[in-house]
Amino acid sequence: MKNGVGLPQEIVTDILSRLPANSIGQFRCISMLWRSQLSSPELIKAHLNRNTHYEKLILISCNHSLFSLTLNNNPLESDSVATKLNFQESNNWGEVVGSCNDLLLVINGEDKKFLLKPTTRESKKLPDSSFALDPFASFIMYGLGFDSSIDDYKVVTLSSNDTDNEHEPDCTNMFENVYSLKSNSWKRVQNSPYDHAVALISSEIYVNGCVHWLASRVSDYLLVTAAFDLGDEKFREVAAPSSLDKDKFVYNKLLVLGGCLCMLDRNQTDLWVMKEYGVEESWTKYMICVPDACEITPLCLWGDEVVLLDLDGERLNVYNLKEETSRNLVVLGAPNKFEYGESFVESLVSPDRGNEIRGVE
What we know:
This protein is mainly β. It contains four helices and 26 strands. A five-stranded mixed β-sheet has the order 25-3-2-1-26, with no helix packed on it. Strands 12, 13, 14, 15 and 16 form a five-stranded antiparallel β-sheet that branches. Strand 10 and strand 11 form a beta hairpin. The C terminus is likely disordered. Pfam families: F-box, FBA_1.
């Protein structure tokens, strides 16, 4: 593949980064030279950064099928179409428990864990962990993220035996295991210093190289947002909005929208967005007001102001955060009801070639 007469490599990378991921995947099949140049870390990162603010959506229907949804250029005025996704290894999906770039961590009906790439229908079944506790007698939480220090995707599990003792913390020993996509193996790391029982209320959130959960300190039971850094594999804490009641934000939901850490309050009306990661003063509050909705879950961001909402698992709603206006989204080909929704960003990452994985933090 020739870059073109007189075109600097950075211009070629910029042009290619504007193409759909599936088109670049097809071009890689032309020759080994094309494959090599279209798999460069520079192109992969440029492509992912360009698509960060235009997320897509995965829905799991009540009959355990997967559907992919791409919002149109103006979702506030136009409807959309969903596409059913079929994978070779399984099509009986139970729950999406992690998302990072264009990779999804999904558990199927047989409690097997898979990494899925919706754009190309690639999948990888994760090996069973020798450190895993009995799933029928323990709590298990999951996380998926990218370790930029070694260009590796990692899966994190937090698990503890169910003590069922009202006088003691539910999670007295929180075991933590980490899976490396590059090595295709599991290892046990230092136990978590937090009680993660509260995290059963909300899913994990991957932002800025860390997997986040709502948790409480074992030492003083103070509620915090615990962040597990995939680089040094240690925990730290991220400050919540200062105006929140620290005794009650356990009932809030952690989210990620447009690459930002977010928190939806227990009343589902205040959406907090951390515009600059780790800076407490950067938390910005938006109001969400949708009539006749009992359960509201923001799913993905389109551009800078439009967020797609899951209302009671029965309908999708497009909401403008700035103007506080909304409309129900009609999706052709999608189920009337669905169990889970998760966003992803189209990328050039492959789930089944660990040594070639590249991404962004």
